[in-house]
Amino acid sequence: MTRRQFLKYAGATAALLGLSETLIPEIARALEEAVAGKPPVIWIQGQNCTGCSISFLNTNYPMVAEIVLDKLSVRYQPNVMAAAGEVAQKAIEDTAKEMNGKYVLVVEGPVPTKEEGRFCTFGLEEKTISFNGFQRREDKPMIAWMEELVPGAAAVIALGNCASFGGIPAANASVTGTTPVHEIVKDIAKDKPVINIGGCPPHPDWFVGTVLDYLINKRVPELDEHNRPKVFFGRLIHENCERRASFDAGLFLEDWNDNNPDMKLCLFKLGCKGPVTYADCPTRRWNSGVNWCVGANAPCHGCAEPTFYKNLSPLYEPLPEVHFAGLTPMVDTLGWIGAAATAAGIGAHYLYKQLGKKESEGGES
Q1: 49 classed as catalytic
Q2: Which domains does the chain have, with CATH numbers?
Q3: Is 300 a catalytic residue?
Q4: pLDDT per position as a tens digit, 92-145
Q5: Per-residue pLDDT for 81 more than 90?
Q6: Is 281 a catalytic site residue?
Q7: Is 120 a catalytic residue?
Q8: Active-site choice (120, 182, 203, 238)
């Protein structure tokens, strides 16, 4: 990479993190120092669909090959590495031993804990078991890998909603014991920093930007109450939605068969969770800035939130306990949405201006 290309890369990093152009020289210097030793990364997968990895592979600037080969030393990532079997497992074990306290542990997918964690395994234990009359090495559960790798990690990144908060696997947690990464880490090393990157899947910028921020500043970035980077999860989707004007005017799409391209109707009644979801999807957009869910005429499913999936489903129905008879909500039963979401930005519009004033205590519903 030439010096010109490197400075261009530093400029893109500044834009990615929302920083001033005046910081580009400082960013370039910090990146040069950071990548000199190629920070090691171990990327393991629990109860996942691999969607978070696929999203990461769609990053365009910097290209994924630059990140994996030049900026970081990705020692283990099952979807991009050539090695397999014992060779791949040895890469994890050697990195954990040689780079103790220096590697970043990326975890994709939550960790099942019931049945001794046997719902999710990869690699092999040293101990053997009898199988059809033969001795074979026992499968190694995800929870065992966490117990082995968390203590030596400099930091842990829970990538995607499932890893961060349980996501879709948590809807069946009573069977598998699905547990978010931060809870597992807390039990193993309670002071270990954990960064949650929500999304199903997360935008590649959210992961790449978080890693670069960590490398440049040599500290965990500023996080919100759910341990998500504020630079990406600091504002409600509803605040920047291109259909906010329709919401304010009370213009809602109520039938998917309606087809009027001139009317960008609000999708709230058909399940949009934008009013309770914090992410920068409307401004960052996906696929190199081409589009995002609402722009493609699909409601936001709230996939960046801790309440996704179980408490935000059914996906194509309005937020729970909100009734639209005469556009008046049963505000007293908003439950988990609560005053926090109201105060965060949708308050006056959501509860008073568009949906009517709160009914008096004991009034008719």
Answers
A1: yes
A2: 1-36 (no CATH), 38-232 (3.40.50.700), 237-353 (4.10.480.10)
A3: yes
A4: 999 999 999 999 999 999 999 999 999 999 999 888 877 788 888 899 999 999
A5: no
A6: yes
A7: no
A8: 238
